[in-house]
Design goal:
Layout: H1 2-6, E1 34-38, H2 42-53, E2 57-61, H3 65-84, H4 90-98, E3 100-103, E4 114-117, H5 123-133, E5 142-145, H6 152-156, E6 165-170, E7 179-184, H7 190-202, E8 206-210, H8 218-234, H9 240-250, H10 257-264, H11 266-280, H12 289-296, E9 309-310, E10 317-318
Parallel strand pairs: 1-2, 1-4, 2-3, 4-5, 5-6, 7-8
Antiparallel strand pairs: 6-7, 9-10
C-alpha cells in the first residue's frame, strides 16, 4: 500500500533537482513511534487524530486545559463520525483515544521522535514555542511546523536543529484531506526529509513537495482567491450568498470562497496574506480592509461562531 502511495509523491523538485526517488535507505517512518503536537486547535487535533489512528503514540499540548479538552472533544466527535460511517470500528476508536495524552508542560515531549508545531499562525508565538520545546527534545527528534505561510528556513533558525527541521503542511480538515505539502528549509537534511515523507504516507496522505517561498503552493494560489472574494464583497459586487453561489456553481468549487475563509479561520487567512504581501512585496497581495476589520472584531469564522456567516443557529446565515 505504501509502495503504491509513493508514486503520488513528485520525484523531482522544481528546477529538476533530485527529489525523493534516488535516495536509498533512510530510517523511514518506523523510527517514528511517538508524535508530539503543539496546539490542539482545528489543525493540531486533526494531526493528533490521524497520527493516533495510524497506531502512533501522541502527545498534544496547548496553553491551557480548556483548549485541550475542546481539542480532545473534537477528536472524539470526528472519530465517532468515522465509526458511524463504518470506516473504523468502535474498538479502533477506543484504542486511538487511548494513545493520545495531553498536557501543558513541554516535558510531555521528552519521548517524542517527531514533534509537529500547529499553533496559531504568528511567527512570534511559534518562536516562543520553539524556545520552550527544544530543551525537552531528544537530540535525534525531528521538528516540523504546520505553518501555512511562514519561512521554514527562518523558523528552523530559531531552533537548535535546522537540519532536522522542515515544513509539514496538512490540509483542513486533516482526517479528510489527502494532501500534505512537504517543504525543506535550506538546511533540512535528506534523512529528515525521507523520514517525514514516509511518515506522511503512513498516515495515508499523499505528498507534494514545495519550495520554501511564502505560503508554498496551495495557499499561494488559494488565499489570493479568497482575498479577492472578500474584495468582491467589500466593493459590493455581490452579497455573501451571491459570491459563494457563483463560485460553487460557476467554477464548480465544492465550497464558496467566503464559506471556505470561515472554515480556515479569518485570522489565519489574514496572517497568510500578510506573509505573502511582506514576503513577495507585490501590491496584488494587499489584504482586503474588510478582512482586517472582521479579524479586529474577533469575527474569525466558524471557530468563533461568526465570520461571513453566523453559526449560532442550525444553519449558517450570511452576515452581508
Ligand atoms: P486554531 O486557532 O484552531 O488553533 C491554534 C491553537 O494554537 C489554539 O488552540 C491555541 O490555543 C494554540 N496556541 C496558541 N499559542 C500557543 C502557545 N504559545 N503554545 C501552545 N499552543 C498555542 O488554528 P489552526 O487553524 O489549528 O492553525 C494552526 C496552524 O496550522 C497555523 O500555523 C495555521 O496557519 C496552520 N494551518 C491552518 C489551516 C487551516 O485551514 N486552518 C490549514 C493548514 C495549516
Amino acid at each position: 500500500m505504501v509502495a503504491a502511495r509513493r508514486e503520488a509523491v513528485s520525484d523531482k523538485l522544481p528546477g529538476g533537482k533530485p527529489g525523493i526517488g534516488n535516495v536509498a535507505h533512510f530510517p523511514a517512518a518506523g523510527a517514528i513511534r511517538t508524535v508530539g503536537v503543539v496546539g490542539a486547535g482545528q489543525m493540531g487535533n486533526g494531526i493528533a487524530h490521524v497520527s493516533a489512528l495510524a497506531g502512533l503514540n501522541v502527545r498534544m499540548l496547548d496553553v491551557n486545559d480548556e483548549r485541550l479538552k475542546t481539542g480532545v472533544e473534537s477528536i472524539k466527535r470526528n472519530l465517532g463520525r468515522q465509526a458511524e460511517r463504518g470506516k473504523i470500528s468502535a474498538e479502533e476508536m477506543a484504542q486511538t483515544l487511548k494513545r493520545i495524552k495531553t498536557g501543558i508542560d513541554y516535558k510531555l515531549f521528552g519521548e517524542c521522535d517527531l514533534v509537529i508545531e500547529a499553533a496559531t499562525e504568528n511567527e512570534q508565538i511559534k518562536r516562543e514555542i520553539f524556545k520552550l520545546l527544544v530543551p525537552q527534545l531528544k537530540p535525534e527528534a525531528i521538528l516540523c511546523t504546520n505553518t501555512s505561510s511562514i519561512s521554514i528556513t527562518r523558523l528552523a533558525a530559531a531552533t537548535d536543529r535546522p537540519a532536522k527541521f522542515m515544513g509539514m503542511h496538512f490540509m483542513n480538515p486533516v482526517p479528510v484531506m489527502e494532501l500534505v505539502e512537504l517543504i525543506r528549509g535550506i538546511a533540512t537534511d535528506e534523512a529528515t526529509f525521507q523520514t517525514v515523507k514516509e511518515f506522511a504516507l503512513k498516515l495515508g496522505k499523499k505528498a507534494a513537495v514545495a519550495e520554501d517561498f511564502p505560503a508554498f503552493i496551495v495557499n499561494r494560489i488559494l488565499l489570493p482567491m479568497i482575498n479577492e472574494a472578500v474584495y468582491t464583497l467589500y466593493e459590493g459586487v455581490g452579497s455573501v450568498t451571491a459570491i459563494d453561489t457563483a463560485m460553487r456553481l460557476g467554477a464548480h468549487h465544492p465550497m464558496g470562497p467566503l464559506q471556505l475563509a470561515d472554515f480556515i479561520g479569518l485570522d489565519t487567512c489574514l496572517a497568510v496574506m500578510h506573509v505573502l504581501h511582506d514576503g513577495l512585496a507585490d501590491s496584488k497581495y494587499r489584504p482586503c480592509p474588510l478582512l482586517v476589520k472582521y479579524v479586529e472584531a474577533g469575527w474569525l469564522g466558524r471557530k468563533s461562531g461568526r465570520g461571513f456567516y453566523d453559526y449560532s443557529g442550525e444553519t449558517p446565515v450570511p452576515t452581508r
